[in-house]
TrEMBL record:
Source organism: Ramlibacter tataouinensis (strain ATCC BAA-407 / DSM 14655 / LMG 21543 / TTB310)
The protein, known as: non-specific serine/threonine protein kinase
UniProt keyword Amino-acid biosynthesis present: no
Alphabetized PANTHER family for the sequence: MITOGEN-ACTIVATED PROTEIN KINASE KINASE KINASE 20-RELATED, SERINE_THREONINE-PROTEIN KINASE NEKL-3
Membrane-traversing stretches: 337-355
């Protein structure tokens, strides 16, 4: 059995029942909590690097995962426990039954009231995380689970820091999925909560327009678009999109973080006001003046002549090779839990996902 295969039938008090899926760095299991007699999802992660690097990665991972575990919010997956089994770290989380936002978005433009409300819920979850000093860094469709058709849950908090360490070890690239990265992530700058806001803006754009905001003929072209290109308003691609939603998306996607919503709560309030303006059935009527003001109208984005500053160590072919090795194959098994914890565990794996 290889070092990348957990050789155990349990992780601490969690007895493995079956494998649910796997990614470049870990495996997700359905497991039984033998102390509390409940089913949970256990994500087992293999640390990269030599002994010293693994110790450093583990310390950073545990610190961030513990911070994420302290967050109690209806729009964030609940972390029950952390531990180690041999060389593997594991996270026991609530078991979610639903489908990834990625699967809903694959069907084209979504129902607009639902799209706006899902984005509102994600923004509220991010606001709670940011208040605890936790930045997700990899908001993308596969990291959002939709439960019962309309309840959004953000997954994989606490894993992004470990991803970042692995990425630097392997290729020296930035963290995140290119289509959903912020300009500052592309350029390798430090990120804060406003990076998550940009990423959520890209999700909202795609949910409303039926296509991502940024495109490129290859990886470098896509990254250049994230940094330099201003997409057309969603309403140009989907005439049903109201101007208020165009305005919210435009503000979330500002290239300069100082021009975006400055916190996720502000974005959530704008989206909540928009959602309230939709009556049952999806046809909009004018809302109260305070609701209209909350839409935070902005002028259409102007093209910004901004050079793309990639790390000199950036190697597109190496990134694509790493993806092919890590996540190029479909999951070995597919079950109704729909990839509970999202496969963002390798930033490089996400590079090619974004190009599909």
């Amino acid at each position: 059995m290889s070092a990348r295969e957990p050789a155990v039938g349990r992780f601490g008090r969690y007895r493995v029942l079956q494998e649910l899926g796997r990614g470049a760095m870990g495996v997700v299991y359905l497991a039984e909590d033998e102390a509390l007699h409940r089913q949970v999802a256990v994500k087992a992660l293999l640390l990269p690097g030599d002994a010293q690097e693994r110790a450093d990665h583990e310390a950073r991972f545990l610190q961030e995962a513990q911070s994420a575990g302290a967050i109690s919010h209806p729009n964030i997956v609940t972390i029950h426990d952390l531990g180690r089994e041999g060389e593997w770290l594991y996270i026991a989380m609530e078991l979610l039954r639903g489908e990834e936002l990625r699967d809903l978005m694959a069907q084209g433009a979504m129902d607009l009231p639902l799209a706006a409300d899902l984005a509102r819920q994600v923004a509220e979850g991010l606001a709670a995380a940011h208040a605890h000093g936790v930045v997700h860094r990899d908001i993308k469709p596969s990291n959002i689970m939709v439960v019962a058709g309309s309840h959004a849950k953000i997954m994989d908090f606490g894993v992004a820091r470990l991803q970042s360490s692995q990425v630097r070890t392997q290729v020296g690239l930035m963290l995140g999925s290119p289509r959903y990265m912020s300009p500052e992530q592309v350029e390798g700058q430090p990120v804060d909560a406003r990076s998550d806001i940009f990423s959520l803006g890209t999700l909202l754009y795609e949910m409303a327009a039926g296509t991502p905001p940024f495109h490129g003929e290859d990886l470098r072209g896509l990254l250049m678009a994230v940094v330099r290109a201003d997409p057309p308003p969603p309403s140009r691609l989907n005439p049903a999109v109201p101007p208020e939603l165009d305005a919210i998306v435009a503000k979330a996607l500002r290239k300069q973080r100082e021009e975006r919503y400055q916190n996720a709560g502000e974005l959530a309030r704008a989206l909540a006001a928009l959602v309230r303006s939709w009556p049952v059935g999806g046809r909009r009527t004018a809302g109260p003046k305070e609701d209209v003001d909350a839409f935070a109208r902005t002028e259409p984005l102007k093209a910004q002549a901004r050079p793309l500053r990639l790390s000199p160590r950036f190697d597109q072919q190496a990134a694509l090779r790493q993806w092919s090795k890590a996540d190029g194959q479909p999951a070995r098994r597919r079950v109704p839990f729909a990839w509970l914890l999202g496969w963002g565990v390798a930033a490089l794996a996400a590079l090619a996902v974004a190009l599909r």
